[in-house]
Amino acid sequence: MRTATAIANANIALAKYWGKRAYAGNYPAVPSLSVTLAGLQTTTTVSFERSLSVDELMLNGVAQEGKELDRVAALLDRIRAVMLSPCFARVVSANGFPTASGLASSASGFAALAAASTRAAGLDVELDAVSDLARRSSASAARSVFGGFVSLDAGPIAVSNERLAAKMFAPADALDMHVLVCVVTEAAKTIGSTEAMRRTAKESSLYDAWLAVAPVQYASICDSLNRADFEALGRAAEASALTMHASAFAARIVYGTQSTFALLQSVRRLRDSGTLVFATMDAGPHVKVLVQSPNVAGVREQLVKSGHVLRVIDAQPCAQGVRFVDEDTR
Ligand code: 2P0
């Protein structure tokens, strides 16, 4: 038996990934740029065991079957394809942040799983290969393999099976920025990202517009980050989120609730009154507010006062990418 434990942090995209290349392999149709977030992490232990007759998955203490297990088994199959003597695995994963925190756990989860299973299988842990492996399960997970500000290119236009890994674009201290995660509901999201992206590509009259605009917004975000220009970065990040959601809207996918839109208005009012503050949203109703250190307390107070926030999680860029806790070889 070989066991390895890895930790990876969640990330939030400033330039959003939304949509995949039409060919197989889970290659993004647009480039994205994210920030890895401190304090929000998943710890995953993988043990390859000869005695097992199937893969097993425990998530936050609960045994999983069906789709969750299938997705994990698909990643393990890729590892087994290159193992000398493949066998099934036991996977134990726990989020260090509440599942209903409004933060997707698939990015940190698949990044930690890719790293732990690579090491447990006795393979070379090369971060590019780990990031590519994670991307094939969940594209945003490719970015959680690295710390700081992280970019992920779009997949090649023609059919490909080549490696596509994320890379660190700038260190965590490149910019003073907090992400205030405003949780607006405990309810599970209505439609998963993979299905929502498929529907957007198929049914949205704005999908082609999104594919044309997203790389331009991405370039603008990269440029703002290079200049450490928070205002330009915030504006472009908010535009990326709203454009992504507009493309989904046109396919009748609405992630926002009344509270989401009320918070977007609150952020705009704060900005109109002179505070540099911007909003972004992912495939869910929660609003993530981008703000710099001197304004964190004041903005947080205003957001809570709005009455639309269940809780606020104050997260900052994390320097660390995926890392190992422990290795046990028997
Ligand atoms: C992102 N999201 O860039 C975008 C913005 C949600 C909105 O990546 O289908 O779990 O597994 O590759 O990475 C969430 O989708 O999707 C996501 P799959 P993933 O963070």
How would you characterize the overall build of this protein?
The protein is α+β, with helices and mostly antiparallel strands. The protein folds into 2 domains: 2-173, 2-Layer Sandwich (Ribosomal Protein S5, domain 2); 178-315, Alpha-Beta Plaits, CATH 3.30.70.890. It has 9 helices and 12 strands. The chain has helices spanning 67-80, 106-120, 127-137, 139-143, 193-203, 207-226, 230-249, 258-272, 296-305, and strands at 2-15, 32-48, 56-59, 62-63, 89-95, 149-152, 167-170, 178-183, 277-281, 287-291, 311-315, 323-329. The strands form 2 sheets. Strands 1, 2, 3, 4, 5, 6, 7 and 12 form an 8-stranded mixed β-sheet that branches. A 4-stranded antiparallel β-sheet has the order 9-10-8-11. Helix 1 (67-80) packs parallel to helix 2, helix 1 (67-80) runs antiparallel to helix 3 (127-137) and helix 6 (207-226) packs antiparallel against helix 7. The longest helix has 20 residues, at 207-226. The radius of gyration is 19 Å and the shape is globular. The N and C termini lie close together (6 Å). The mean pLDDT is 95. The structure holds ligand 2P0. The site of ligand 2P0 has 16 residues, from helix 4 and helix 5.
